[in-house]
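Bit of a strange request maybe. I'm writing a small parser for structure token strings and I need a real example to test against, not something I typed by hand. Could someone generate the tokens for this chain?
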Amino acid sequence: MPSIATTLVQAQQPLTAVSTSARLDAELLLAHVLLQPREYLHTWPERELSPAQVEAFNTLIYKRRDGWPIAYLLGHQAFWSLDLLVTPATLIPRPETELLVETVLQLGNHDQAQTILDLGTGSGAIALAIARERPHWQVHAVDSSCEALAVARNNAQRHHINNVTFHHSNWLSSLPSDLRADIIVSNPPYIAERDPHLQQGDVRFEPRSALIAGVDGLDAIRIILATCHRHLQKNGWLVFEHGYDQATAVQPLFAQHHFQEIQQHRDLAGHVRVTAGRLLRSE
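Reply from user aminoacidic:
Good idea to test on real output. This should exercise your parser:
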């Protein structure tokens, strides 16, 4: 039977056409099959694999060759300080979304109890990261997908995070009428329905309902802005992640819905990816 070293060399070739990190992908997938850390592969390169292990590994390699995201094949993804379970029912948490978490932590009052509402929670990445950092805050995580909520609940249990309440709702439509948040945060769908990027990379395998938002990609943001007032405290903040090229379109939408103190935040690449506004009057 082939050794670990031989298997890794053979696996790289079919991955080079779809991945810029073919060796790393192969190592991650083989370590996953062996239930070992990556370091094990370098410590025991001569170890022979069983037929069942070879078959399981090849199945993953073929899926990766066909474009399947590594996170879905492994079943987990790192985000903030958490290792989160992910499935094709959820978006894959991305490093740029950590800017959204940072913004909420900065806007919230660290010394007082706060209520946070995370709309479209998916795997729970944003809600759980905030809840982990601020255990005295109460976080409410909302999603219209029962499958996604099951993943988010599982992640909360795995990390022993107990200050998050989960709600099944299409945005704010089915939330308790008395729920009022100091901050509403969302990483909503913001890709235009004909954006060519939908046919490229990982997004081909991610849930369309969590990606696409109408002709210009702003439909979900418009819905939330139009309906959030009854669940947002006076002087409360609304915080969105959006596309790198949508900042100038999003800012006036906040103003149209009576938000003030509008601020925009840049990611490490210099793109404005987060817009926040404060509701200084209630309707």
